[in-house]
């Protein structure tokens, strides 16, 4: 194994990083490292992907980079044909997502979003903005979209423009935060209409400061909603 790691020096990675990525993918230990990874790295480089992004892909998602070269080349070409910029992190994110699903699964994800009104073009645009929105399971897509559309009354198109919200936990983040904000609206404490992204993106500390402790008279009630001790959504 030591020889295989040393032979990878031409790929542009230090032994420490190679070992790290191999430990993340036990199957990689059973493969001939240079033969598997070198052609794929070369393809990424000729496609305009920086060494920083290549290193990120290999270190964090080694299974994607260790794919058979013909399959890897097909995925890279697909991502490039979709219009992804190889100098951006979303390029390797798209490779990661597509590496983890079959064409049948890809179509099923599109169908899941279409159930809530996303057109094929809207789903593709959402994927181009934030590839992980299509790595979400179909069950999670149904649950989150159902909550946004039927419980929060959001328009499907609004969610499509902010696809990052699809990766959050429904139970741990979406429902608690939406419960707090919904209560603030009902009490007239919030006048400005907030986007779903502005509710879900802030850190927990920032969210609590802006929407809980900022309202001392209602802070206890809001905290009960946030922790789930009191529920206002029937889900």
TrEMBL record:
GO MF term (any one): nucleic acid binding
Q: Which InterPro entries match?
A: MTERF, MTERF_sf
Against Gene3D superfamilies, the record matches this protein to:
Transcription termination factor 3, mitochondrial (1.25.70.10)
Q: Does the keyword Nucleotidyltransferase apply?
A: no
UniProt keywords, alphabetically? Transcription, Transcription regulation, Transcription termination, Transit peptide
GO biological process: any one?
A: DNA-templated transcription termination
Q: Is this entry keyworded Magnesium?
A: no
The UniProt entry, under PANTHER family, shows: CGI-12 PROTEIN-RELATED, MITOCHONDRIAL TRANSCRIPTION TERMINATION FACTOR FAMILY PROTEIN
Similarity-based family: Belongs to the mTERF family.
Q: What is this protein called?
A: Uncharacterized protein LOC111491435
Organism, as annotated: Cucurbita maxima (Pumpkin)
């Amino acid at each position: 194994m030591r020889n295989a790691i040393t032979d990878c020096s031409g790929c542009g990675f230090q032994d420490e990083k190679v070992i790290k990525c191999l430990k993340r993918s036990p199957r990689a230990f059973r493969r001939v490292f240079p033969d598997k990874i070198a052609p794929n790295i070369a393809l990424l480089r000729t496609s305009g992907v920086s060494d920083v992004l290549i290193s990120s892909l290999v270190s964090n998602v080694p299974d994607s980079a260790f794919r058979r070269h013909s399959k890897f080349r097909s995925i890279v070409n697909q991502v490039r044909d979709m219009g992804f910029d190889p100098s951006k992190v979303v390029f390797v994110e798209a490779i990661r997502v597509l590496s983890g699903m079959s064409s049948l699964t890809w179509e099923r994800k599109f169908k899941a979003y279409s159930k809530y009104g996303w057109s094929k073009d809207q789903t593709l645009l959402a994927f181009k903005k934030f590839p992980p929105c299509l790595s979400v399971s179909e069950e999670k897509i149904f649950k989150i979209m159902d909550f946004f559309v039927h419980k929060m009354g959001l328009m499907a198109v609004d969610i499509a423009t902010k696809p990052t919200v699809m990766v959050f936990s429904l139970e741990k983040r979406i429902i608690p935060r939406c419960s707090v904000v919904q209560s603030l609206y009902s009490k007239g404490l919030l006048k400005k209409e907030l986007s779903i992204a502005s509710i879900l993106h802030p850190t927990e500390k920032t969210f609590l400061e802006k929407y809980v402790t900022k309202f001392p008279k209602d802070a206890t009630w809001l905290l009960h909603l946030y922790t789930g001790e009191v529920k206002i959504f029937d889900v």
